[in-house]
Description:
8-stranded mixed β-sheet, single chain, Aminopeptidase
Amino acid sequence: MSDAKHTDPAPDQAAADSGHDLIVSHSIPLTTRSGFEFHVRPVEPADKEALADFFRHVSRDDLRFRFLSPIPEVRDSLLEDLIDVDHDHKEDYIALDIDDKTIIASAMIGASEDKSEAEVAIVVRSDYKHRGMSWTFLEYVIDEARRNGIQKLQSIESRSHHAAITLEKEMGFSAKSYPGDPSLMLLEFDLTKPRPAT
């Protein structure tokens, strides 16, 4: 069942009232089942510092789950990789609080050349967890991947990341052991099947 409300981006009212040129937000507003509203858009190069601040508010465990490696912090080279996207085969969607400034989640998609499959990885800022964001954000990313012609989404999770594995299975991902590494699980979502009616 869809819990996301997709609406057209709204103009910045403050800019309209001030008499300046109309500024249109490129963020898409989404609402979780609990009523929490946030905005989503593709990452831009200017987001680098905001991304750095975002990752400073992500727990060590969640950093490990996101990058499948125990890293103490997200260094500059990794930030550069996150914003170095082509908006076709590689995309990083950022979720923002309604101020359109504070990044509260990130979802990276990396697709194969023929788009037969793509890996997805999501991480949420620690103080914004438990608001239903992960479900709504991932649902949006699934829809965008399908619209972009990707046939299968894959998520590689640590076996100890129970919350993510449970969420993805509830959303329709199949789960199996990751080949060659018993500490990981491979979850897959077939995007060629019709989306269930809501």
